[in-house]
């Protein structure tokens, strides 16, 4: 009997283990950038995810949408869609009004966002930790690219698009992911720092000097635009607690509660013309 | 021989598609469910017991890589843990009797716990960061996996019994 037949199981396992170790080894020094192989696997299975998620939605809305309230449901969906875009417009309008002095400047900055919103449905969440990433049903065909800001129904920042971006699917890195970092400023005290995720429900506001004044619980944080990914003025979160940082005494230890609500995250808006778009 | 490998590969791919579908349905219904329910582990355990260690390792690789593709973690960590899960589940299940429900559930629980320990260790080693245990909810994952996996065998047995009665 040849060696292959005798030791078939052990050889298969050894081969697969060697493949995995090699796969992990080549990624570790490179950081978070996805390899071609990782993208291929994502593209291979993402249609299955789209179909499964659409089936769940279809079954869920079968009664409401067909048997009982067919006409009302259609009208409601239309109104919801309009409301979604209007809410986004109002948010940007409010943010621009705060930062803009003249009417001409206001018109110019509003024109930046005209037709730049793509509404997308969330079809999946990170398989290892839901606070890291989500998958949406819009991709490069719809004008979605890498490094575009993503907001929820209320205009609060959710995260940004990252590779891989498929034809009809894209992955969003949430602001709560531990590798995420957003440049933010508090609206009252004007504290400027970096909001980084922890892969939990809360985030850290880093690099705020212990000697800095202000920064109270409940104070809202908005994006500054310094990171050249997120447009300035988008609401991100509120300060949850302010303490002394025992490990690094020169900085404060500030916890931030993101404004987007994970449990109601069904539809999001992708800002295709933001500073990060097209990078 | 070649035909068997090709058939096994195709079956493993179909098993992975089933796992992705179940994972997507769970995610679409309630995202928080994914903390306590790992569809990929259930599929790997079920088919490894049914078809042995080689198929288990192959399916483990495919399911693990699919799980990694839908995550921001290092690509291959779930792949390596699920490969080992599939192989050892298939290998051990051929040498002990796990037909009764309780024994079957206990066996799956042990294998799921071992998989989780391995996943936590490799993640900590590769990313140099501890894993978020979601307030302890993550530790329920092996229990849910074991109960669901064993229930699949019970369901299969009942369907077979009903069919044989019908025939």
Core attributes:
heterodimer, A: about 280 residues, alpha+beta, Thrombin, subunit H, six-stranded antiparallel barrel, about 25% strand, B: about 170 residues, mainly alpha, Arp2/3 complex 21 kDa subunit ARPC3, about 80% helix, globular
Descriptive overview:
The complex is a heterodimer of chains A (279) and B (167). With 279 residues, chain A is an alpha+beta fold. Chain A folds into two domains: 131 residues, Thrombin, subunit H (Beta Barrel); 78 residues, Thrombin, subunit H, CATH 2.40.10. Helices cover 35% and strands 26% of the residues of chain A. Chain A is built from five helices and twelve strands. Chain A has a six-stranded antiparallel barrel with strand order 1-2-5-4-3-12. In chain A, strand 7 and strand 8 form a beta hairpin. In chain A, helix 3 crosses helix 4. The relative contact order of chain A is 0.13. By secondary structure, chain B is mainly alpha-helical. Chain B has a single domain, classed as Orthogonal Bundle (Arp2/3 complex 21 kDa subunit ARPC3). The longest helix of chain B has 28 residues. The mean pLDDT of chain B is 86. At the A-B interface, helix 2, helix 3 and strand 1 of A face helix 1, helix 4 and helix 5 of B.
Short synopsis of the structure:
The complex is a heterodimer of chains A (279) and B (167). Chain A contains 5 helices and 12 strands.
Number-wise, the strands of chain B total: 0
Number of helices of chain B: 7
CATH architecture of chain B, by name, is Orthogonal Bundle
Termini of chain A, distance in Å? Answer: 58 Å
Which structural class do the helices and strands of chain A define? alpha+beta
Strands ordered across the widest β-sheet of chain A = 1-2-5-4-3-12
CATH class annotation of chain B: Mainly Alpha
Unreliable residue stretches of chain A: none
- CATH classification, class level of the largest domain in chain A: Mainly Beta
Mean pLDDT of chain B: 86
Radius of gyration of chain A: 22 Å
Flag low-confidence runs of chain B.
none
* Broad structural category of chain B: mainly alpha
CATH topology of chain B: Arp2/3 complex 21 kDa subunit ARPC3
- Largest interface: pair, residues per side: A-B, 54 and 48 residues
């Amino acid at each position: 009997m040849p060696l292959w037949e005798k030791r078939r199981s052990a050889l298969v396992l050894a081969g697969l283990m060697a493949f995995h170790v090699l796969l992990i080894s080549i990624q570790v020094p490179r950081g978070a950038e996805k390899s071609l192989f990782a993208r291929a696997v994502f593209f291979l299975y993402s249609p299955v995810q789209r179909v499964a998620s659409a089936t769940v939605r279809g079954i869920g809305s079968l009664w409401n949408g067909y048997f009982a309230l067919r006409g009302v449901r259609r009208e409601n969906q239309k109104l919801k869609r309009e409301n979604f875009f209007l809410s986004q417009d109002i948010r940007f309008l409010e943010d621009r009004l705060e930062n803009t002095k003249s009417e001409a400047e206001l018109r110019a900055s509003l024109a930046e966002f005209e037709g730049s919103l793509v509404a997308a449905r969330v079809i999946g969440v990170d398989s290892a930790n839901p606070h890291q990433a989500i998958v949406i049903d819009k991709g490069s065909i719809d004008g979605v690219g890498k490094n575009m800001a993503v907001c929820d129904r209320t205009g609060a920042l959710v995260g940004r698009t990252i590779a891989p971006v498929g034809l009809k699917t894209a992955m969003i890195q949430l602001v709560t992911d531990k590798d995420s970092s957003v440049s933010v400023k508090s609206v009252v005290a004007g504290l400027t720092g970096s909001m980084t995720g922890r892969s939990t429900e809360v985030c850290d506001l880093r690099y705020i000097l212990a000697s800095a004044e202000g920064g109270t619980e409940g104070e809202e944080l908005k994006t500054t635009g310094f990171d050249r990914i997120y447009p300035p003025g988008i609401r991100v979160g509120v300060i949850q607690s302010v303490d002394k940082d025992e490990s690094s005494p020169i900085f404060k230890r500030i916890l931030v509660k993101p404004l987007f609500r994970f449990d109601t995250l069904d539809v999001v808006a992708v800002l295709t013309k933001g500073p990060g778009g097209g990078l | 021989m070649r035909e068997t490998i090709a058939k096994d590969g195709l079956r493993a791919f179909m098993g992975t598609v089933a796992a992705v579908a179940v994972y997507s349905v769970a995610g679409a219904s309630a995202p928080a469910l994914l903390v306590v329910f790992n569809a990929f582990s259930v599929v790997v355990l079920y088919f490894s017991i049914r078809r042995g260690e080689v198929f288990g390792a192959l399916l483990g690789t495919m399911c693990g890589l699919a799980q990694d593709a839908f995550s921001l973690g290092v690509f291959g960590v779930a792949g390596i843990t699920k490969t080992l899960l599939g192989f050892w589940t298939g290998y051990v299940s051929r040498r002990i009797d796990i037909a009764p429900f309780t024994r079957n559930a206990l066996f799956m629980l042990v294998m799921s716990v071992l998989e989780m320990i391995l996943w936590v260790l490799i993640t900590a080693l590769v990313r140099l960061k501890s894993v978020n245990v979601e307030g302890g909810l993550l530790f329920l994952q092996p229990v849910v996996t074991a109960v669901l996996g064993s229930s699949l065998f019970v369901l299969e047995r009942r369907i077979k019994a009903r069919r044989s009665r019908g025939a």
